[in-house]
Amino acid sequence: MNDSSWGPPPHAGHPDAGHPHTGAQPGYQPAYWGPVDQRSVGQGPVQGAAPAGPAYDAPEAQQTRPMPIVPDVPAHGGNQDDDRGAARLGGPLFRDETFRPGAPDPAFRDETFRHETPSAQPSAAVPQNPEPMPDAPQPAPAPQKKSAGRDLGAAIGVGVGLGAVIVASLFVVKAVFIGVIAVAVVVGLWELTSRLQERKGINAPLVPLAVGGAAMVVAGYVRGPEGAWVAMALTALAVLVWRMTEPPEGYLKDVTAGVFAAFYVPFLATFVALMLTADDGAFRVLTFLLLTVVSDTGAYAVGWRFGRHKLAPRISPGKTREGLLGAVSFAMVAGALCMQFLIDDGTWWQGLLLGLAVAASATLGDLGESMIKRDLGIKDMGTLLPGHGGIMDRLDSLLPTAPVVWLLLVLFVGSG
Q1: DSSP-based three-state secondary structure for 317
Q2: Can you tell me whether residue 58 is helix, strand or coil?
């Protein structure tokens, strides 16, 4: 039963006070309402009066217990507007306010009363966490210091240590330097084959590669270019045969990766051993190492300070065109000095060409290894050298530069 089923009780002065059927005048009261208290006419119900309804007659209404007054705020919360609030009975018999003549229909009294009661107003009207104004000035972020991306101190320390070992072995006993090259080749092959197996599931056989790689370097130093080519061919054949001892699944990709690794690491490193066979071989190797390191240093320094335009963003996002210009400039100056003062019968202009070629080959070698690492989804080939990564991360620019320097020195001053 809702509010409209009860209807408003007639009051004196109300426009609808007359009986709808009899047309009785104000003050008339049906039998079931009981005696009319004239003091209550126009003032609403008197507390203690019997509730209205057809179930009561006049005698019984006098003995009925008074209807308790419904509180203004429901027990479940005064600011909740839900179905329970909509089902509350309205009318003066259930409120402690006075119904004024000319008030709106009872069906709308609850809504009016709720809007007039401050406690019934929704609390969400006032935001508890106001948002800042869109045009409010925001504090400017603190400028971030440009980072080199690696532990520069560790990189310099490791580089100086490796350089001391190389130079000492190079000018003391050449055979010791050949051993240093062979060790670097074996470690580089181990890093490369390990990453291929981990990231791509390619099982390039390490044993024939390591043995053949070390033999290739020694053969190049002892027998020259012919010895290096023969060792390369035998190493490739050993890879094919070694892989036959395993199931045929993946044979083609495994042996292809093995032959690639044999060419990429030990065969290119053999050209350093070939430089060492000349009379001024130690200075040729030193020139090769100096130009490659200076090229990398120039690219790093200029690119880090002035780099704005990417050189090959899909391969190596850190390399810039400005860095390439720095590599060329530094390498050409270093090449002119080295050819003039270190190489027998060398001239400065030959050094300019040599430096230009070294900068190009070193950059291409760095990009080539970056392409391999991007395909494998790794940043470094290893973690053996703090601040550098692995051995292969240091050989990336040296390996493709070795045959270029060897060939240009042979053309400029002979194989002597």
Answers
A1: strand
A2: helix
Regarding beta strands 316-320 and 310-312, do their DSSP bridges make them parallel or antiparallel, or are they unpaired? Answer: antiparallel
Work out the number of other CB atoms within 10 angstroms of the CB of residue 380. 16
The length of the chain is: 416
Residue 92 has pLDDT above 90, yes or no: no
The percent of the chain in helix, strand and coil, each rounded to the nearest 5, is: 60, 0, 40
- What pLDDT, on the 0 to 100 scale, is given for residue 363? 96
Q: How confident is the model at residue 166 (pLDDT cuts 50, 70, 90)?
A: confident
Query: 289-304 b/e with 16+ CB inside 10 Å = b?
Result: bbbbbbbbbbbbebbb
pTM of the entire predicted model: 0.65
pLDDT tens for 50-67 read 444 444 444 444 455 555
Question: Is 352:403 a contact under the CB 8 Å cutoff?
Answer: no
Report how far apart, in Å, the C-alpha atoms of 155 and of each of 148, 218, 265 are: 11, 30, 23
Contact in structure between 289 and 313 (CB atoms under 8 Å): no
